[in-house]
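Translate structure to sequence.
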């Protein structure tokens, strides 16, 4: 008995149906993937927020400082804040268990240096971060997925002199005290970023994210006349925001950057909204 084979028309029909199903399913699968990345990213930020709470409990009620200007910069190191930004805070890194099994080094500008004290481990990058996880070289030397809110520091207030305390009794130049943050559930502490810090005005998506997307920090500085700390809306035109009470919320870009109703008109970033001004 002769077996009946598929005709060319029948094969084309089957292929067309499969292609149609893939066309229908791909956006759904893409959204599911993006949703999974956003959840992983939020979990990382949640962990950082809890570590910040632990840090405050251990350091007389002071959150981890934005930077520590008392640490000397190693000779030949590029970038002003490479070795004393918040992510290099040794106590904070210990709470996050960052350095327990890491000996990784990489080459930057012709010399090898130990990255352990300056950036996050691979597993702590946002999975949608296309820059930091590639370890693309930055003169800043700090390759992270999340930026600490530096709006008040930029304004030249006391946060400019934040330093890691030399002891638990010396907190004169520590970060914000828990009691300083009047509404911890509404004040932005950390957000998806291209660098280790963020400013309110750098969250202005029309001038930065909408034009350039994800870039290396140095590339952003070149394109924006030195502007750094850009907020990155890599999660479906939004970002995960960590608040001082350690909860994380996903917010659309037009909710994160708001020009209306400035709460601190006297500051350098005079249009900063309440969410961006912790004190």
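Result:
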């Amino acid at each position: 008995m002769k077996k009946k084979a598929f005709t060319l028309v029948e094969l084309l029909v089957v292929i067309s149906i499969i292609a149609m199903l893939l066309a229908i399913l791909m956006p759904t699968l893409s959204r599911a993937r993006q949703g999974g990345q956003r959840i992983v990213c939020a979990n990382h930020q949640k962990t950082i927020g809890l570590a910040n709470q632990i840090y405050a409990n251990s350091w007389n009620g002071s959150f981890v400082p934005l930077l520590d200007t008392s640490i000397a910069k190693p000779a030949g190191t590029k970038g002003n804040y490479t070795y004393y930004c918040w992510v290099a805070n040794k106590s904070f890194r210990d709470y996050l268990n960052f350095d327990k099994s890491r000996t990784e080094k990489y080459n930057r500008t012709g010399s090898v240096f130990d990255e352990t004290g300056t950036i996050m481990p691979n597993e702590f990058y946002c999975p949608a971060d296309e820059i930091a996880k590639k370890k693309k070289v930055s003169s800043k030397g700090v390759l992270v997925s999340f930026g600490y809110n530096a709006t008040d520091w930029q304004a030249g207030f006391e946060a400019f002199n934040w330093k890691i305390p030399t002891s638990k009794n010396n907190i004169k130049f520590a970060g914000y005290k828990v009691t300083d943050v009047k509404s911890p559930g509404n004040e932005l502490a950390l957000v998806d970023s291209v660098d280790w810090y963020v400013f309110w005005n750098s969250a202005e998506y029309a001038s930065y994210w909408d034009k350039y997307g994800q870039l290396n920090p140095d590339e952003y500085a070149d394109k924006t006349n030195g502007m750094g700390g850009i907020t990155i809306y890599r999660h479906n035109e939004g970002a995960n925001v960590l608040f001082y009470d350690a909860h994380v919320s996903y917010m659309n870009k037009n909710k994160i950057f708001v020009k209306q109703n400035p709460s601190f008109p006297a500051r350098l970033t005079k249009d900063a909204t309440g969410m961006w001004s912790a004190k």
